[in-house]
Specification:
Layout (H helix, E strand, L loop, with lengths): L1 E2 L3 H15 L3 H19 L1 H5 L2 E5 L3 H15 L4 E6 L10 H11 L3 E5 L5 H7 L3 E5 L11 H12 L4 E4 L21 E5 L17 E5 L7 H4 L4 E3 L22 E5 L7 H12 L4 E7 L13 E5 L14 H9 L3 E4 L7 H13 L4 E3 L2 H8 L11 E3 L3 H8 L3 H6 L1 H12 L2 E4 L4 E4 L5 E4 L11 H14 L4 H23 L6 H15 L7 H4 L23
Parallel strand pairs: 2-3, 2-5, 3-4, 5-6, 6-7, 7-8, 9-18, 10-11, 10-13, 11-12, 13-14, 14-15, 15-16
Antiparallel strand pairs: 1-9, 16-17, 17-18
Helix pairs in contact: 2-4, 2-5, 4-5, 6-7, 9-16, 9-18, 10-11, 12-13, 13-15, 16-17, 16-18, 17-18
The protein binds NADP nicotinamide-adenine-dinucleotide phosphate (NAP).
NADP nicotinamide-adenine-dinucleotide phosphate binds next to helix 2, helix 4 and helix 7.
Length: about 550
């Protein structure tokens, strides 16, 4: 897992490398700037052609920029460094000043920009490539003054833009765009990526992110542990293969409790997704008479409950015995999709969470019910996965969605702490937290997945992984990856624009196959077989669209 640092964590690592390892700050800056130059030289023809504009602030981000400018100048490229302010404004004796002076002493062209407008804006707009070294991790407030004007000039330039450390205007800690920000084609950062490279909206401004080694010791995380990690496909454990003698009862039974007037599709999608994620059996428990049963996939079983059918609050306490029976035969429960938030639903949620021994995914309306009555969560938090979107998270935290989005990491950690459960905070840059475990960001999926029912599919995927024996945290992380990868696969086929939740379900089996351990070659597989009948004796026929295909 790759750590995602705050500006302060990075500052302490730099200070440790300078103070305890003994590498001078000016050397780190040289290495950082050369790393950016190497990227330009290798990846951008425009950098070799020139002219290149390097726009530098007065801090250390600008200092990195002067190194880039010197490297380009030494290669004979027509390059100009635009300093926002004058030379005297760059701290004498500091690393940035040393590299500003070295650039000028090498014969590099410097333009001191003391007011908005004029020649600098015109020249930057005419550059073949712009290097943005205005603001990095030192951004602490709304961008103003010359920096704001410079961001406008960089944005107006038609050529590629490469940002040093962070696109100017993006907050390293939150990904917030602080008033105005550069949109880069490439961002070259140092040591470790920062949170702002992966948290939206800043993440959308970074382009491709490259990380350059500037000499920070490899074991530094032992002294200075990180508390947020990027969790990618390389970090997941492979899904267990179904055993050769598997039967439907041994592959996990997911019971989905949900559905209501106009919302019959929600639990249906969750159950279908559970089957497509490897569960052997899936049952939807919903109020009898709900319109929509005939639209369920044939493979999904139903448990029609005593209830008031299409009435607003259709969950009837008399249905409890039937639900209890179903829970007894389940390996995982998904509760909430389309369930409604009436008092009957509330009572059902309390009973289910209070009684079942099976791990549970708590989603959608069940989360709104929990927000109104946190005591319904009962005491088995560790076996639960809560999957709120920002609106549901806001209800659970008694705040608003804007506040949650402004500090998604704080929100997911607080929910995990309050409910002592694994929590998946959905949205662009999904976060997974669990008490006592590293919080992870999973940068998967695409905007096309912002479609009705995609959340129901995710709850079904996680439900299936729980039913197949994964621990809640592992099921949550793997489920988010599987769901995102299925979304990407579906978008490749259909485009992002018209993606619907059912497309994700259809894409799940092939994605699941990619996530599974390869099946070892068995003795039978190796024995000679006639081409006409290549299936080993006793082997089950491949099921189209399944991971046994
Ligand atoms: N040794 C190394 O190589 C090394 C180590 C650490 C960092 N770095 C580089 O240096 C960067 C951090 O350097 P830094 O701490 O000096 O910060 P910085 O990112 O360079 O920003 C500080 C400068 O930006 C100005 N500024 C800050 N917020 C502003 C705003 N909202 N509007 C307009 N101007 C604003 C500050 O002006 P005021 O003074 O007026 O606030 C100051 O001149 C990193 O991102 C990295 O690129 C290099």
């Amino acid at each position: 897992m790759i750590p995602l640092l705050t500006a302060e964590q990075m500052r302490r690592m730099d200070a440790y490398t300078i103070g305890s390892v003994g590498l001078p700050g000016a050397l780190l800056m040289e290495t950082a700037g050369r790393g950016v130059f190497d990227c330009l030289w290798a990846e951008f023809e425009a950098a070799r052609r020139g002219p290149v504009a390097v726009v530098c602030g007065r801090g250390n981000n600008g200092g990195d920029g002067f190194v880039v400018a010197r490297c380009l100048h030494n290669r004979g490229v027509a390059v100009t460094a635009y300093l926002l302010g004058n030379r005297e404004g760059v701290s004498p004796g500091g690393d940035a000043r040393l590299h500003l002076d070295a650039y000028c002493n090498s014969g590099g062209r410097l333009v001191e920009v003391e007011e908005a407008g004029g020649l600098a804006a015109v020249e930057i707009a005419g550059a073949a490539l712009v290097v943005d070294a205005v603001l990095g991790t030192g951004l602490r407030r709304e961008v103003g003054g010359l920096a704001a004007a410079a961001i406008g000039w960089i944005e107006a330039a038609p050529g590629p833009v490469v940002s040093v450390d962070l696109p100017s205007g993006v907050c390293a800690d939150t990904g917030r765009v602080w008033g105005r920000a550069v949109s880069a084609d490439r961002t070259v950062t140092f040591g470790f990526p920062k949170r702002g490279h992966y948290l939206f909206p800043g993440a959308a401004r970074c382009g491709d992110v490259r990380v350059v080694d500037i000499g920070i010791p490899g074991d530094i995380l032992h002294h200075m542990p990180a508390d947020l990690f990027l969790f990618g496909e390389a970090d997941r454990s492979p899904l267990p293969l179904l055993p050769a003698d598997a039967h439907k009862g041994s592959c996990g039974h997911v019971v989905v409790i949900g559905g209501g007037p106009g919302k019959a599709g929600a639990p249906g999608l969750a159950a279908w997704a559970a089957l497509r994620s490897g569960a052997g059996l899936a049952t939807v428990a919903w109020p009898r008479g709900l319109r929509g049963e005939n639209r369920l996939p044939l493979e999904v079983m139903t448990l029609p409950l005593t209830g008031a059918g299409d009435a607003e609050d259709q969950w009837d306490p008399r249905a409890w015995n039937a639900v209890e029976g179903a829970l007894g035969g389940s390996d995982a429960v998904v509760i909430g999709p389309g369930m409604g938030t009436g008092t009957g639903a509330q009572e059902m949620l309390g009973r289910v969470l209070g009684s079942t021994g099976a791990p549970a995914v708590v989603d959608a309306d069940a989360l709104s019910l929990l927000a109104a009555g946190p005591e319904l969560a009962g005491s088995k938090g560790r076996d639960r996965v809560l999957t709120p979107h920002p609106g549901e998270a806001a209800r659970l935290l008694r705040t608003d969605a804007t506040t949650v989005q402004a500090d998604r990491i704080g929100a997911v950690n607080e929910l995990a702490r309050r409910f002592q459960s694994t929590v998946v905070l959905k949205g662009a840059g999904t976060l997974v937290a669990c008490p006592g475990e590293a919080t992870c960001l999973l940068a998967v999926g695409n905007p096309g997945m912002a479609t009705a029912g995609a959340g129901d599919v995710l709850s079904g995927v996680i439900g299936a992984l729980l039913a197949r024996g994964m621990a809640p945290l592992e099921a949550a992380r793997t489920g988010v990856l599987l769901h995102g990868a299925a979304g990407d696969r579906a978008a490749e086929q259909h485009g992002e624009g018209g993606l619907v939740a059912g497309d994700l379900v259809v894409a799940l089996p092939a994605t699941l196959r990619r996530f599974s351990r390869p099946r070892p070659v068995s003795r039978t597989d190796r024995s000679p077989v006639s081409p006409a009948s290549s299936a080993p004796r006793g082997a089950r026929p491949a099921v189209p669209g399944s991971d046994r295909e």
